[in-house]
């Protein structure tokens, strides 16, 4: 939390929850204190209309977890940015490591997705982060720079949030130490200053993601270059409201 940037917390529900559980979670979210924190939650596509109809907009907005690199057309199984906009959705998560790993989305495709989504007026949480062996062999920033270089000129602080998610920390309980998270996010901001501009770097929000929970969030939220969180597992539980609270001061 630093530089006058507004904190933003995302709840990425991934491919989880049936309708009844998603509805119960919305009920909890409707009671949370958000203060000055911006909150978005990303249900599975099929649940988005229900969540949009029941989630109070002064608590959280709804995000999609992905969208196509194309517009509408003959692309079986895909969902375009135009569909999201038509549904009143304002946010989309792009480049999550699970999309990179299981669906083979590479930097080139993700740059196309980002460009297309932004051109249709969506706001984007754009995910980057290194694998375990890359952390161990000291190439974390090489990886993050490579993931950012093709999109650096598209980084508008009004419409893009970066989510730094070390892959080894996702769903493992191995949260990055405050030093690892702060040092990496500071370096990411320095890279953005050189690849985009110092003004963009100062204003763009960088979330941390990877095993954030109700207990470790406060220490991480206090760090200069952490502007919120992208939360997976804990976003499905009541403790998500504690994470938002830690970012709401
Ligand atoms: O999008 C969220 C991240 O993948 C973090 O997931 P996690 O909080 O379950 O580690």
Automatic annotation (TrEMBL):
The protein's annotated pathway: Carbohydrate biosynthesis; gluconeogenesis; Carbohydrate degradation; glycolysis; D-glyceraldehyde 3-phosphate from glycerone phosphate: step 1/1
Gene3D superfamilies: Aldolase class I (3.20.20.70)
Organism name: Diacronema lutheri (Unicellular marine alga)
Single Gene Ontology MF annotation: triose-phosphate isomerase activity
A GO BP entry: gluconeogenesis
Name used for this protein in its record: Triosephosphate isomerase
Subunit structure: Homodimer.
The EC number(s) this enzyme carries: 5.3.1.1
CDD domains registered for this protein in UniProt: TIM
Catalyses which reaction(s): D-glyceraldehyde 3-phosphate = dihydroxyacetone phosphate
Pfam families registered for this protein in UniProt: TIM
Transcription keyword on record: no
PROSITE patterns: TIM_1, TIM_2
Keywords: Gluconeogenesis, Glycolysis, Isomerase
InterPro entries: Aldolase_TIM, TIM_sf, TrioseP_Isoase_bac/euk, Triosephosphate_isomerase, Triosephosphate_isomerase_AS
Family listed: Belongs to the triosephosphate isomerase family.
Organism ancestry: Eukaryota, Haptista, Haptophyta, Pavlovophyceae, Pavlovales
UniProt cross-references to SUPFAM superfamilies, sorted A to Z: Triosephosphate isomerase (TIM) (SSF51351)
GO (cellular component) term, any one: cytosol
Claim: Nucleotide-binding is one of the keywords in the record: no
Origin: domain of life: Eukaryota
